[in-house]
Structure formats: C-alpha cells, structure tokens
Specification:
The chain is built from six helices and 15 strands. With about 240 residues, it is an alpha+beta fold. The protein has three domains: about 55 residues, Structural Genomics Hypothetical 15.5 Kd Protein In mrcA-pckA Intergenic Region, Chain A; about 80 residues, Pseudouridine synthase I, catalytic domain, N-terminal subdomain (Alpha-Beta Plaits, 2-Layer Sandwich), CATH 3.30.70.580; about 80 residues, Alpha-Beta Plaits (2-Layer Sandwich). Strands 5, 6, 7, 8, 11, 12, 13, 14 and 15 form a nine-stranded mixed sheet that branches. A four-stranded antiparallel sheet has the order 2-1-3-4, with no helix packed on it. It has a two-stranded antiparallel sheet with strand order 9-10. Helix 1 crosses helix 2. It is elongated, with a radius of gyration of 20 Å. It starts with a helix and ends with a helix. Bound molecules: uracil. The site of uracil has 8 residues, from helix 5.
C-alpha cells in the first residue's frame, strides 16, 4: 500500500493532509525520512513507521481524541442537529467509529472516538475506574469546604421522582470566579449537573479536561481531533 494511503486510512488526516506531512519530512521509516507519498509500505512495516518520532497505530482499530465543540450531539448521525460524527473526515465515515460515553450537547472537551469495541466497553464499564476531570463554571454562591467534604464522602443524589442514588467519592477543587474542578470515577447521566444542582448551583459551562491519561493537545481547537499514538492507547488500556 502507498504510505499516504496507509496514514490516511489510519486516521492521520485526509489524503492531502498526510501527503503534506510526508513531503515536509514528518514521517520516518527505520530512522530515514520518507518524502515520497507514494512510497510503498507493507503490513509488517507498521511498527517501524514514525510520525513526528511516535510509532503510528496502523492496526485494524482507530482511536481519536476529539475536542468536542459546544452545540454538538454525542452521536454519529442525526437528522436535525450537528453531531460529532459530522466532524470525522469523509475517509473515516465507513469505519464504524463511535464515541465512548457521552457528553451533553453544550459540554466541550475530551471525547474518545474509536471502533475498538472492547476498549469502549472497558472504559464505560462501572468496574473500571478511569478518572474523568471536568472544569465547571457555575452560578450561585461560591462552593466551600462543605461541598468538598460532601463530594469526597460519596454523596447521595436525592431527586424528586427518583430513587436515591449513592455516588462514589469525588474530588472537588475550589477555584476562583465561580469555577471548580471535579474529578469523577463514574459516568452517570448528567452527573456533574446533578451533583451541582443538589448543592443549589447550576452549571453554566462544562468542559472535560481528561479521561485517565487522555488529554487535549496544546492549542487543539474545538472540533479538532488527533489520532492516539500507540503509547496513548497503551496507557488508556492499562488504566493510567
Ligand atoms: N456531567 C454532565 O452533567 N454533563 C456532561 O456532559 C458530562 C458530565
């Protein structure tokens, strides 16, 4: 297969984008920069191909970290509203990629997209405890040490019309200007908003900063995604 085709199929950009990367010398094989996009590569070369010094992931599965923009559904298709599936390059639309877990329509930040069903299951299963870190801007009285203690003790959500729901301990870090950072190890529906609501605050802006070891890149704009490196995938699978 041509090098540019392999990189595009593996999620490193459109054919035009990866050609540009190759021509600029970002891709090496066995330490040698390859400038020719039509360079012929074989399956077994996969692990020896480096992009900016990092081994590429050219296996059957694809993994992307998207900076989810505000105003997008966490879905691959929708008849009416913009959804994260619209942000995938056209060459990846047939690869059965889907989001892992869910962010609300207005929530921004780290969203993992993959067609690796086993990893998706692992990351969403209640048995696995990946820390998810949220930056929250809220309205109402400034949160205090009282809420820090409440969240860390594992609060019980008591909502009208619902059975009480005991939550796992969560770490609340107080920040100035009605902001806080909240670290959860579970992912119940609208969990951050429900926790804040129980303390009498409402969430104005919610941004997920990380899932375990997975973070946005510096300057990664909303709507942009990057393909995970082998190391990123290893760390996620191992629960770091
Ligand atoms: N908690 C929420 O309330 N919304 C999200 O999008 C994620 C976590």
């Amino acid at each position: 297969m041509r090098l540019d085709k392999l990189l595009a199929n593996s999620g490193y950009g459109t054919r035009t984008e990866v050609k540009e990367l190759i021509r600029k010398g970002h891709v090496t094989i066995d330490g040698q920069a390859i400038f020719d996009p039509s360079f012929s590569v074989s399956e077994e070369m996969g692990s020896r191909i480096l992009l900016d010094g990092e081994p590429i992931e050219a296996g059957e599965y694809l993994y992307f970290c998207l900076n989810k923009p505000d105003g997008y559904l966490t879905a691959m298709t929708d008849d009416r509203l913009p959804c994260v599936g619209d942000l995938l390059p056209p060459n990846l639309k047939t690869k059965k990629i889907s989001p892992v877990g869910r962010l609300d329509f207005h929530t921004t930040g780290v969203l993992l997209l993959t067609n690796d069903g086993a990893l998706s299951h692992q990351l969403t299963s209640p048995k696995w405890h990946r820390e998810k870190v949220y930056l929250v801007t809220y309205s109402g009285e400034a949160l205090t040490e009282k809420e820090v203690a409440l969240f860390s003790s594992g609060m019980t959500l008591t909502e009208k019309g619902h059975a009480p729901e005991k939550l796992k301990p969560a770490i609340l870090t107080l920040l100035p200007d009605n902001q806080c950072r909240l670290t959860l190890t579970e992912g119940k529906t609208h969990q951050v908003k429900r926790m804040l609501a129980q303390t009498g605050r409402s969430v104005i802006f919610l941004h997920r900063e990380s899932i375990g070891s997975l973070h946005l890149k510096e300057n990664q704009e909303p709507g942009e995604m990057y393909a995970l490196s082998k190391e990123d995938i290893r760390l996620l699978k191992e629960g770091n």
